[in-house]
Design brief:
The chain is α/β, with parallel strands linked by helices. 41% of the residues lie in helices and 14% in strands. It has one domain: Rossmann fold. The chain has an 8-stranded mixed sheet with strand order 3-2-1-4-5-6-7-8, with helices on both faces. Helix 1 packs across helix 9, helix 3 packs parallel to helix 5 and helix 5 packs parallel to helix 7. Bound molecules: NADP nicotinamide-adenine-dinucleotide phosphate.
Length: 251
């Protein structure tokens, strides 16, 4: 018997998460639109249409995460796909010139409080949501966790003096995405033999709130690889870290 796939996407009220939610819902997936602001989540789910349902989920709030897991358990009984997408680039306004950002976020200058705030969402939030949702993923016969990482997270690329974007590497956003890869690698190793698949994926440089709409790809183009991997079925691979189109990113 065929059953409808149930997917939770964190931070799906806008940006890449919203685009992935929209495309999965079009495929007939039941999409749970995670949103820290429930009104914005409801607006996004309404805009997507049938199959999309808002779930209040702040990845930095243990009570919110527990309530979301409880709600999904009661309403849907399991989870087939978790897309860890929610992230912030900085905790303050991000309408600053790139050079100013690069200078202010250098390892010698960025405040520890700011690094902690960014890691709270991008790293510890991912781990907390994973731990809360794992019992529901274990009830699926085809469970997958897609972690939305970034090309800027690659330690291998950034260690190469020829890598053109390495001056953007810093302990806050880029470093947090490297740390997210640690969490994803830990998940991958943990699930090597139990059938739960784990992937990492990077959008293109996409025009979203995260980069003050400075990204050069549209939401549709920029989200393509995330959508492609989120659509993976039981015979598709685990352990990939890719950007469009299926181009591997070195960890
Ligand atoms: N855009 C790019 O060029 C690019 C490139 C590489 C990787 N990425 C990755 O792609 C993913 C999506 O980013 P985006 O570009 O689509 O950015 P975005 O438009 O700013 O979306 C980020 C989403 O995360 C949510 N969020 C932030 N903090 C949260 C929290 N504590 N709890 C729950 N949700 C929270 C935001 O909610 P609010 O609406 O309430 O703020 C928003 O829905 C991120 O993981 C990012 O690192 C993006």
């Amino acid at each position: 018997m065929q059953h409808t796939r149930i997917a939770l996407i964190t931070g799906a009220n806008q940006g890449v998460g919203f685009q992935v939610a929209k495309e999965l819902a079009k495929d007939g997936v039941t999409v749970l639109v995670g949103s820290r602001n429930i009104e914005r989540g409801v607006a996004a789910a309404t805009a997507i249409g049938p199959g999309a349902h808002a779930v209040q989920l702040d990845v930095t709030d243990p009570a919110s995460i527990a309530a979301a897991a409880q709600h999904i358990s009661a309403e849907y009984g399991r989870l087939d796909l978790l897309v860890n997408n929610a992230a912030i680039s900085r905790s303050e306004r991000n309408d600053v010139a790139l050079e100013d950002y690069t200078s202010a976020y250098a390892a010698s200058k960025v405040s520890l409080d700011e690094v902690r705030r960014v890691w709270e969402t991008n790293v510890f939030g991912v781990l907390a949501v994973y731990q809360a949702m794992l019992p529901l993923l274990r009830l699926s016969t085809d469970a997958r966790i897609v972690n939305v990482s970034s090309g800027v997270a690659s330690l291998t690329l950034n260690a190469d003096p020829a890598f053109p974007y390495r001056k953007l590497y810093n302990p806050a956003y880029a470093g947090s995405k490297s740390a997210m890869n640690i969490i994803a690698l830990s998940m991958l190793i943990e699930h090597e033999h139990d059938g739960i698949k784990v992937n990492l994926v990077s959008p293109e440089f996409t025009s979203t709130a995260l980069n003050n709409y400075q990204g050069t790809s549209t939401l549709e183009e920029g989200s393509r690889e995330v959508v492609r991997v989120a659509r993976f079925g039981p015979n598709d691979p685990s352990g990939t870290f890719t950007r469009w189109e299926n181009e591997s990113i070195p960890w």
